[in-house]
Amino acid sequence: MTNEHNSITRMEGAKQLFYKFIDSLSVLPNYSFALRMYGHTVKYPPGDCKDSKLVVPFNTKNSINLIKQKVKEAKPTGITPIEHSITQSANDFPDKKATNIIILITDGIEECGGDPCAARKKLMEKGIVFKPFIIGIGLTPEQIKTFECVGTYYDYDDTKTFNTISNTIKKQKLSKTTAQVNLLDMNKKPTESDVNITFYDIDRKVYMYNYIHTLNKNGNPDTLYIDDYPTYKVVAHTIPQTFSEPTKLQEGKHTTIPIDAPQGSMVIKRPNGIYNFNEKVKYIVRKSEQMNTLHVQSLNTFEKYIVGTYDIEVLTLPRIYLNKVKIEQSKQNEIVIPNAGMLQVKAIEAGDGNIMLVNPDGRYERVTNLSTATQQTFYLQPGKYVIEWRSKSLKGSIYTIEKKFTMLPDQITVVELYK
Questions:
Q1: CA 210 to CA 41: how far, in whole Å?
Q2: Distances in Å between the alpha carbon of 90 and those of 30, 85, 102, 121?
Q3: Crossing angle of helices 82-89/116-125, nearest 10°?
Q4: I need a labelling partner for 297 at 20 to 30 A (CA). Which of 104, 158, 284, 354 fits?
Q5: How are beta strands 341-346 and 375-380 bridged, if at all?
Q6: To which H or E segment does residue 36 belong?
Q7: What domain range is 410 assigned to?
């Protein structure tokens, strides 16, 4: 700020421009002003990257004259902590619902290793959804580019800068940038909702926002106030995930982001039985003819899925496989599987063995191994079974015991391996 620009120091030029703004805007009704300064208290070198202070807070008595006096007294002695200053300014506004505006006048770029883009995000998180007006004095094209993600840049030497900013503020054209995400059903209507949606900045490859999608009281997707700088990809965490095309918002305008997300629901359940076996069974859901697991769901619970066909593996004993199960728009597919029976296996000593299912064609199919415990409980689907078991103390295969039995739904079957 001590260097000359157009026959005066940059500091003097900044002060003159500031006086024009404060004189022009202070006559507006229902506006209040505050002043934050940086790089003005600690000399360089070494400077101080925390050298940023709210010199005159909002709603200070006689604030306009006090602000002018502080600007008149200001001397450029330090360095330029832009990210820190912008971030701190987010805490300066007493009313986050008001139209909050920042005018930043600088002759340099970030000098403290900060990320002005990150400061912009912090402003958004504080509810300050407008780009700061950034007025640069004597900046190079490379320096100007560093402010692209922070705010709208104006050149001090442009004779239109003052009028453009003043008129924009006076006419209250600072429209908020808004968006809505339309989760579309099969009829391309935005009726789907209650889904977690994530906004990603696809250029910087970073996460930006997370919301649970909501329909407002009128049944329409609610309005989101988000930053217009990034190009977004929006992921809807449906099962499976769906996502938008790359979307660039328009500053001060409302953008609708469509995502095809037609859903139906599914539940696998057992009929009510005489016994409450307290059985906990889950099932694996995959897209038809694909091996990747999409979801693991518990019996008797409801879950939404994107419309399509799915293959299901129910983790009963033995397992139940259901292929090409259809999920249709706004419909609930309710699948009932037979109740299990309870098998109690008893022995007087440890042994080795397993349970085999006897298929209708006579083939034996292993269901599960037995442990070495002398008492074990299993929940088996209805069918014919056989247990093959040998005591650990008996070292010949000839001592294998075979027990055949039939499992009925809702029945308790006891198999004793010592009789």
A1: 40
A2: 20, 9, 9, 10
A3: 10
A4: 354
A5: antiparallel
A6: strand 35-38
A7: 341-416
Long-range Cβ pairs for the range 64-71 (8 Å, 24+)? 64/22, 64/26, 64/33, 67/22, 67/33, 67/34, 67/35, 68/19, 68/22, 70/35, 70/37, 71/15, 71/18, 71/19, 71/35
Candidate from 253-262, 265-274, 294-303, 317-326 with smallest mean pLDDT: 265-274
**Using an 8 Å Cβ cutoff, are 77 and 42 in contact?**
yes
- Do 29 and 158 lie in a common domain? yes
3-state secondary structure of 196: strand
Instruction: Report helix, strand or coil for 14.
Output: helix
**Tell me: the pLDDT tens digits for 235-260?**
999 999 999 999 999 877 899 999 99
Asked whether residue 41 falls in the same domain as residue 121, the answer is yes
Q: Which structure tokens are listed for 23?
A: 């004189």
Structure tokens at 164: 């453009």
Closest C-alpha among 310, 340, 333 to residue 322: 310
Q: Are 207 and 198 in contact (CB under 8 A)?
A: yes
SS3 state of residue 199: strand
Read off the pTM: 0.70
- If one compares 156 and 87, the residue with the highest pLDDT of the two is 87
CATH number at residue 277: 2.60.40
* pLDDT value of residue 1: 47
> Same domain for 145 and 89?
yes
Mean pLDDT of the residues in the chain: 86
- Residue 4, classed as helix, strand or coil, is strand
Give yes or no: residues 150 and 45 share one domain.
yes
- Domain ends where: 232, 260, 288? 260
- For residue 253, give the CATH number of its domain: 2.60.40.1120
Number of structural domains found in the chain: 4
Q: Tell me the HSE value of 333 on the side-chain side, using a 13 A CA sphere.
A: 20
Considering the domain architecture, whether residues 58 and 165 belong to the same structural domain is answered as yes
Q: What is the pLDDT of residues 41-83, one digit of tens each?
A: 777 677 788 888 899 999 888 888 998 898 888 777 767 788 8
Shared-domain flag, residues 281 and 352 = no
80 lies in the same domain as 147: yes
